[in-house]
Design brief:
Layout (H helix, E strand, L loop, with lengths): L4 E8 L3 H11 L4 E7 L4 E8 L2 E8 L5 H9 L2 E8 L3 H10 L10 E2 L5 E5 L9 E5 L3
Parallel strand pairs: 1-4, 5-8
Antiparallel strand pairs: 1-5, 2-3, 3-4, 6-7, 7-8
Bound molecules: cobalt (II) ion (CO).
Cobalt (II) ion (CO) binds next to β1 and β5.
Length: 135
């Protein structure tokens, strides 16, 4: 199996406080981590759902990938992230299977994880992220 489990779903938001009203207050999810990931141009909040997470993403500017997504589609579901123990071999395997990659090599994601995105044109329109957590 290439993917261990769903690590998180990413949700693009314009207003993080308003989103936290929903997820933390009404849905009673615990905030586990908050981080500004400059490289991805987002402020991200991870909320616990069992062993998985919801990742709220607020763009730092309109020029970022998430900022452009919001301008085009508005707030909502942004990506799904699958966990892998070995992102290098998983990335190779999906590339060999003919999937177009956004990231040819893994890069640093939230909490020091290693991540890589697959192109939605190869994944039925679903932006897909691979995550290798810090061991
Ligand atoms: Co993510």
């Amino acid at each position: 199996m290439l993917f261990g489990r769903i690590d998180h779903i990413g949700v693009a938001v314009e207003d993080l406080d308003a989103a936290m009203q929903l997820y933390a207050q009404r849905f009673d999810m615990r905030e586990q981590h908050r981080e500004t990931v400059e490289e991805q141009g987002v402020e991200a909040v991870l909320l616990e759902v069992g062993e998985g997470h919801v990742e709220l993403l607020r763009p730092l500017s309109g020029e970022t990938a998430v900022g452009k997504f919001l301008a085009k589609r508005g707030p909502g579901l942004h990506h799904v992230a699958y966990q892998t123990d070995d992102i290098d071999s998983t990335l190779r395997a999906v590339r060999d299977a003919g999937i177009d990659l956004i990231d040819q090599e893994p890069r640093v994601g939230i909490r020091g994880s290693r991540v890589a995105f697959l192109h939605p044109s190869s994944t039925g329109g679903v932006l897909t992220e691979l995550v290798e957590p810090v061991h």
